[in-house]
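User: tokens in, sequence out, please.
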């Protein structure tokens, strides 16, 4: 990963397909709400990479906001 580059832009390789992921807009659902976010995704099988930083940061914040409603 290059300096200043966010982890969701990092190049990942799908273990199942052995293909580099591509950053794509994906939909994530939680508590009946659907969000659109750009994450690395395998162009072959559609597997999405959710890094620990994203899961513990942006997604955790969104979960908290929804649960507080």
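Assistant: Sequence out:
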């Amino acid at each position: 990963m290059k300096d200043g580059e966010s982890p969701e832009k990092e190049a990942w390789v799908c273990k199942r397909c052995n293909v580099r992921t591509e950053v794509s807009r994906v939909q994530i659902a939680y508590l009946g709400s659907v969000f659109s976010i750009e994450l690395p995704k395998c162009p072959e099988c559609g597997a999405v990479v959710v890094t620990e930083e994203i899961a513990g940061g942006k997604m955790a914040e969104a979960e908290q906001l929804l649960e507080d409603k």
